[in-house]
TrEMBL record, chain A:
PANTHER family: DUF742 DOMAIN-CONTAINING PROTEIN. It comes from Streptomyces tardus. It holds the Pfam family DUF742. This is DUF742 domain-containing protein.
Automatic annotation (TrEMBL), chain B:
Keywords: GTP-binding, Hydrolase, Nucleotide-binding. It comes from the Bacteria. CDD domains: Ras_like_GTPase (cd00882). This is ATP/GTP-binding protein. GO terms for molecular function: GTP binding; hydrolase activity. InterPro entries: Gliding_Motility_GTPase, Gpn.
Length: 124, 206
């Protein structure tokens, strides 16, 4: 048995010793749909009910707009578990979300592409 | 607060895929260009069941957990670009369909010592209609081929840009992304002639 630094407790045969869905209270589906790139930000409004440590940890990562993927990576949980925790926080008003800007094949969003190009060039 | 004077505190999140075979340098590429240490997340992706692995009584879709590396580039206050490395194992290629939903475009990383490893990605993006460019990661000690040689070997269409890069360096990988986005803009202009361009593009960066 070995613990990776700050990560989940792992067992050579059994894998994670705390199953991911324990964190989400056995739930496998969030109440709202999240993309990996959905941005989440704390609203500053504290929920009335007491937050569990996992929810508090997630909320602590949302001080500035942060993607679901980043939050999942930081708390070292699968994205689906992270989404369940986030949907709880969204339901109680503790976070606000923004869907990612998805580019469809038929949406020639040149302004968006030009802005991305401009931003990348500025880094060179 | 940072956004006290801004009514919309959220930037627009967009994504680009970094694809290619196993060991071609995708994680190195993402790490070099990202402003954060590359992170990894496990996502459930819907998998179109293949004849070979379909289970009796189970139809259509199944989900599989796929680990993905990703990085982030903040582009000013209004845009944030996420780079996702596609799972390298070829048996996961069928999952890319969900991965590339909504992506701006893709970079197919190629290693001249194993060019066949990028065929699946090139094929897939061509069929999916997602704009992409091919970036040859020039490994030290590997034989340097000309653009024409690589193009012929990959059977790359003349309209798909091919660039050389060093996946370890931020300037080189950023240049690859600049080339990709420029290609996407040019392609959209060709396909959408009714769109009036607000201004001429600035001169290419040296």
């Amino acid at each position: 048995m070995a613990a990776t630094s700050g990560g989940p407790w792992l067992d050579g045969d059994a894998g994670r010793l705390i199953r991911p869905y324990t964190v989400s209270g056995g739930r496998t589906r969030p109440t709202v749909s999240f993309d990996l790139l959905t941005l989440v930000r704390a609203t500053g409004s504290r929920p009335h009910s007491q937050l569990g440590p996992d929810h508090a940890q997630v909320l602590g990562l949302c001080g500035r707009p942060t993607s679901v993927a980043e939050i999942a990576a930081h708390i070292r949980q699968p994205a689906v578990v992270t989404k369940v925790l986030l949907s709880d926080l969204l339901d109680c008003g503790a976070v606000a979300t923004r869907e990612p800007t998805l580019l469809g094949p038929d949406s020639p969003d040149l302004a968006l592409l030009e802005a991305v190009l401009h931003g990348l060039r500025a880094r060179l | 607060m940072d956004f006290a004077h801004d009514c919309d505190p959220f930037p627009a999140a967009v994504k680009v895929l970094i694809a290619g075979g196993f060991g071609v340098g995708k994680t190195t590429f993402v790490g070099a260009v990202s402003e954060i240490e590359p992170l990894s997340t496990e996502e459930l992706l819907t998998q179109i069941s293949r004849a070979t692995d379909s289970l009796e009584g189970v139809e259509g879709k199944a989900t599989t957990t796929v680990a993905m590396d990703f990085g982030r580039i903040t582009l000013g206050a209004r845009h944030v670009l996420y780079l996702f490395g596609t799972p390298g194992q070829e048996r996961f290629w069928f999952m890319w369909d969900e991965l590339c939903e909504g992506a701006l475009g893709a970079v197919v990383l190629a290693d001249t010592r194993r060019l066949d490893q990028c065929f699946a990605a090139v094929d897939f993006f061509e069929r999916r209609g997602l704009g992409f460019i091919v970036a040859v990661n020039e490994f030290e000690g590997a034989h340097r081929y000309t653009h024409e040689e690589v193009r012929a070997a990959v059977d790359l269409g003349a309209d798909v840009p091919l660039v050389m890069c060093d996946a370890r360096h931020a300037s080189s990988t950023t240049e690859v992304l600049v080339n990709l986005v420029r290609h996407l803009i040019e392609t959209r202009n060709e396909h959408a002639p009714e769109v009036v361009r607000p201004h001429e593009p600035s001169a290419p960066h040296p």
